[in-house]
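Researcher: I need the complex structure. Ligand is fe (iii) ion. Inputs:
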Amino acid sequence: MQRRDLFLSLTRLAAALAWQQVFSAGARAQPHPDEAWMTQDDPFPLGVASGDPLPDSVVLWTRLAPRPLQADGGMPQVAVPVRWEVAADARFTQIVRQGVVVAEPAVAHSVHVLAEGLAPGRTYHYRFEAGGQRSPVGRTRTAPDLVEPVRQLRMALASCQHYEHGYFTAHREIAASDVDLVLFVGDYIYTTQAPNHLKVRSHAQAMDPEPAGRTLADYRIHHANYKLDDDLRASHAAHPWLMVWDDHEVMPDYTGDTAPGLDDPQAFVAARAAAYKAYFEHMPVSPRRVPFNASMPMQGRYRWGQLADIWTLDTRQHRDPALCGEWPRSLMHGKLLWRCDAIGDDRRTFLGQQQEDWLAAGLAGSDAQWKFIAQTTQVTPWPIRSPLGPLTYAEGWDAFPAARARMMEAIAQPRVQDVVFLGGDVHRHVAANLRHEPRDPTSPIIASEVVTTSITSKGMSEVANAWIKAGNPDVLHMRSDQRGHVMLDVTPREVRCVFRGTPHPVRPQSKLRTQATYVIERGKPGLRKA
Ligand code: FE
Ligand code: CA
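Model: Output:
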């Protein structure tokens, strides 16, 4: 495992250097960009986005694609110069940074501008120009200075947006909200088709369920399909995003280099490489995250002044393969495990050794008032009682108990205070207390957990949900019947978690309501109902 991590680090370094060369070459002379390329069409139908906010920089994204549902986006196979501008005001009378980058056909004419030299804790506006056309204006924000005693941080927590299951109305609310950040914790696209009874709209193009049948063009078209949604584009244009990914960005339930039920591992790795590349091309992530083959560095750590440290974890790329894949150990296409003792193996990892060590060291050394660990899924155990005995959700931390125990130890042992886990994946709102020994009611509560429901993806039945909730008294709130997001209001004294929701499926004009509000007080792990 460690040798593999070292190899990955080296290949990433090589990829990042190659990327830097493209960028600096672009900044110097620009490798024959077609300056004359002009278009009457709008090359920006996929909108604009920003992300990775640091105190002095932010990443600005767009992709030129006048015909976004074509494999080439309707672009010629030439590099095209893209002008970018960052202004202090929405009318662009005070431009503070500007430049020209090259949109290369090799990356689907996407651009990831690292806009540097910005002031901390400020709102900025940005836009692009290419082919004689101007993009919509985006708004973004830099992180406060590292030593700044920040009084407030507002974040929208979101995940799981199957396009066919509903409308992205939750994003309309997020776009209109006064938040500093959107924290998206995975399942940004779904490559599966919804069954007819769940379908409220259709993907532009169905994906081949077999990895061998999937191409880079398929993933690009799929991402473009999602970005054509007005509410999703508005949410990106309004705020900087921090990205965590999960399985559906590639293929359902994949783990590391494998996916369930696949005969051809090579085909899966090729599909994963295509999926990672298309993901990079469509997300406002730092250019240093550029993927190399089937590997992309996703983990991150962000700081919001003295108020918060935010870790964004990658629980997919480095996790150990799923176990007990054969019936009767595996039920519901591998989603549930029955009597699978092998998951108890101490060596099993959910994050990969390198990421585990990095998180533990970061937590131990953090002097931020709050430590947010944003990751894909629910950390709190949710054993499922059945007439046959307990069942385990194969996709989450419950199937990696030793890895979870090590993470809890990394909090308990150095006595890291004020840790809050933020997750998604399970398509339900959850508020839960996390104990040092998660299943032991006598063990101390050492952290809090907030899980957001899905933007659209269907949840379990409320009956099943009630069984699960009954199985763990540390789950204070759990509802799977509504779609929405969680608004997190962070101050030095408390984190206020507002669970917003609307019934499934989400209609275009749905209004979200507050389902519940919970508060975490600083110095007192666990949540209480407000
Ligand atoms: Fe999901
Ligand atoms: Ca998932």
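Model: Summary of the prediction. The chain is about 20% helix and 25% strand.
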